[in-house]
Design goal:
176 residues, mainly alpha, globular, binds calcium ion, EF_hand_dom, EF-hand-dom_pair
Length: 176
Amino acid sequence: MRQAALDRVKLIFTLLDADGTGSLEAEDFELMATRVVAASPNSGEAAKAAMLAAFRRYWTTLAAELDANRDGRITFEEYTACVLSPERFDAALTDFAEALAALGDPNGDGLIRRGLFVALMVAIGFERANIDALFDAFQPSDDDQIEVSVWAAGIKDYYSPDKAGIPGDHLVEVRG
Ligand SMILES: [Ca+2]
Ligand SMILES: [Ca+2]
């Protein structure tokens, strides 16, 4: 695996451990789903429900595939196995990426404003400077919006073990 992919996986594991226990449990995904949905108050109920469902599916998929010792929690060691066989998570990740991108587009015009993008990514736990760098890398329009499809694709790239030099790497950089 490429180092860039490993760095991305490390960061996302830390953020997914929303309650800070040091491992991933079902509660982490409930907590983060609540935070993320709360960051987009103008989104419709269907979009919010889809986001919640996507977080739950993400957890049940991870638990089914990665909880090697079946103790209801996923350690970092267990989690890193996900990057070795990304195809097993493809459906859940696609679901998650589309739900998150849709949440960022309350008026359904296919575009996401920087303000809501930042709010959602802060809710997940990323740093503001990294979020702005990522948004810029997605090449926003003159009125500072990006396409929903670009973001959804970017989320999937983030989890791809063979990708390096992608916009998502901006999330990992330590920025001052
Ligand atoms: Ca946890
Ligand atoms: Ca386990």
